[in-house]
Amino acid sequence: MNAALIIIFAVMVLSICLGIMAKKGKDMDLEQWSVGGRGFGTIFVFLLMAGEIYTTFTFLGGSGWAYGKGGPTYYIIGYGCLAYIMSYFLLPKIWKYAKENQLLSQSDFFVSKYKSPYLGILVSLVGVVAMIPYFVLQLKGLGIIVSESSYGTISPTIAIWIGLAVVTVYVMVSGIHGSAWTAVAKDILILVVVLFLGIYLPIHYYGGIQPMFEAVEAAKPGFLALPDSGMSPSWFVTTVLLTALGFYMWPHTFGSIYSAQNEKVFRKNAIFMPIYQLVLLFVFFVGFAAILQVKGLTGPDADLALLKLSIQTFDPWVVGVIGAAGILTALVPGSMILMAASTILAKNVYKVIKPDLSDAQVTRTARYLVPVVALIAVFFTFKGGNTLVALLLMGYSLVTQLFPTLIFSLMKNNFVTKAGAFAGIGSGVATVAYVTITGETVGTIFPFLPQAIQDFNVGIIAMIVNLIVLCAVSAFTKSTAVVNTKAEKAL
Amino acid sequence: MSLIKWLALIPFIGLLGGTYFANKVTPYLFGMPFLLGYCVIWVVITTVIMVVIYKLDPRNREGDAQ
């Protein structure tokens, strides 16, 4: 047992305590459990949403990408910025509608807007399928962190089981209250760790930030900008746009919108979120610092850059603090995902199939689904061989397919029909699935197009298919829809 | 307000359209590669724009205690 491990375990115990204490004095019905009784103020909502930025993907993946890919990493800063601008206009509308209609999950929103419980099932399944890779990604990150910072004494497999047990316990007991309190601990710790590493390492190894970039540029000319093909500016622009649109489409992020006290919370957050994003710069700096110091990490191993450099530079207790911060970045989003997945499976799938369930039964089902979802994710974690980035991008392409249907539903005169919503989401998801399974890119499907278009993020194609089918089917079924509304009015 | 909210489009144009022209390593901006510095500038501009929109949006004038 070294100093690093002691610190890591102390933080794990602390997060369980915080999680369980958060329950105190609250009657845990489904509304308390999943959306905190709609009582969270600016700071909690800020932290829950910021949990989205500082996941293990950004902590390990962000520095890993800076190390392995260079310039393309900057997209992470761009998409958040644009997503927050949209949040100013979008989130208050979603929140208000959700409150008026007592909605608890993302699927509820689609069910209510399009008056179709079956659309809710489709949206739920898309959401759960997208969240599983996202959760797997957190678990993989957790395994890497614990095994690296324990200097190999704990295997990733054992680390994943322990981490999973921690999340499952506090999600079952405290629901979203647990996540919010752990998010507080996480953001303080991660802020300190990231700022320290991002400033100390470039100065320690290169004498400053610009000297570091100059050294990298001298060793690998052009690495710090975008390449001419592949991850070119066209890739950058389409990826920023797609991920920005998908940002709030994750069921757990969408669900945390409901937890706010009032709609002003979102408008206030839209000011602070972009600037808070700049903390990511320091994560990138760590990855860039590692380029010339830790050699030979290729492929998925690039995700180890931050930890390898830290182990090489610091005493075990510092590594322990870094590892602890990293673990919290896996636990908070992990708990949000588990909760969102269990809520929608219980309420929007199970309850639709068995409509005679009471609210108490649905709540109980949601809780008991937590370990089930967790075990499914573990199965994929040990089975799949994908890198962190590949997992995240697939999930993003899936949830982004919900965006058009959602946006149109917020317009005053929504022309999208029930059938159009089904067909649009279905065709978009089918396209993503086809592309993911066959490994096609825009370039391989349309080899005759100019390079700039070949580099488009392939999710764009799915989005276009989605939009065309959505509009076509809506136009085709419009006449019947209008007749139906007239008939309803006549009654 | 209706006119002011179009300000929110500026970062989209700057970040998405500008990437094609800003894709280079030198000159260094704030000690960072040009493209990264360019993104950072837009993050700061975005914050300023959101402050302006927030201040001019009549919906935010109501008191905090609601």
Automatic annotation (TrEMBL), chain A:
Pfam families: SSF. It is found in: Membrane. It is a multi-pass membrane protein. Its main location: membrane. Keywords: Membrane, Transmembrane, Transmembrane helix, Transport. It comes from the Bacteria. The keyword Transmembrane helix applies. The chain crosses the membrane at residues 6-22, 43-67, 73-95, 116-137, 157-176, 188-207, 233-250, 271-292, 317-345, 366-382, 388-408, 415-436, 456-476. Belongs to the sodium:solute symporter (SSF) (TC 2.A.21) family. PANTHER family: MONOCARBOXYLIC ACID PERMEASE, SODIUM/PROLINE SYMPORTER-RELATED. This is Sodium:solute symporter. It comes from Fictibacillus fluitans. The lineage of its organism: Bacteria, Bacillati, Bacillota, Bacilli, Bacillales.
Automatic annotation (TrEMBL), chain B:
Keywords: Membrane, Transmembrane, Transmembrane helix. This is DUF3311 domain-containing protein. The keyword Transmembrane applies. The chain crosses the membrane at residues 31-54. The keyword Transmembrane applies.
